[in-house]
Amino acid sequence: MSVNLRSFNQKVRNRKTAYKRFLTRLEKKTPANLDKLTTIVEKEVWQEIDCLTCANCCKTMTPTYTGKDIKRIAKHLGMSVNAFRKKWLVKDRSNGDWMNKSTPCQFLNLKDNKCSIYKVRPVDCSGFPHLPKKKMVDYMHVHKQNIEYCPATFKMVEKLIERVNGQ
Description:
Blueprint: H1 5-28, H2 34-48, H3 56-60, E1 64-65, H4 67-77, H5 81-88, E2 89-91, E3 98-100, E4 108-109, E5 114-115, H6 123-127, H7 140-146, H8 151-165
Antiparallel strand pairs: 1-3, 2-3, 4-5
């Protein structure tokens, strides 16, 4: 299903605080079936959300590049690691992570929302939005952040609220 980013941003403004509070409650008092429930809900989410109609993550966020990511992508582009870093990345002063200099991501084709380095993209990108993690509670901090950027994460939390509060 196509994602309407204007509608999504409006929902985020209206529900972000409540959704973050809900995730914090789950973190503090985790239901025994949370991981199983998350697996079920995640499958439903992907039937409703098509990332190629959105790409909001690539438009508004930057992945963290590991050393392996940088070597792999630089090689793919026929560049040295130093040339790749100099052209595209910046080192975060607070934590030393390598990140894109700017957004949207330089590898995002804005015409079709496809990644030009998809086969060699950063691990952070390939795992995003990190929904199917074995222990959901260990990723609550990630989901609290991602509900503002990712319609799939937002939808997952919406469905979890329905299921958990409906029990």
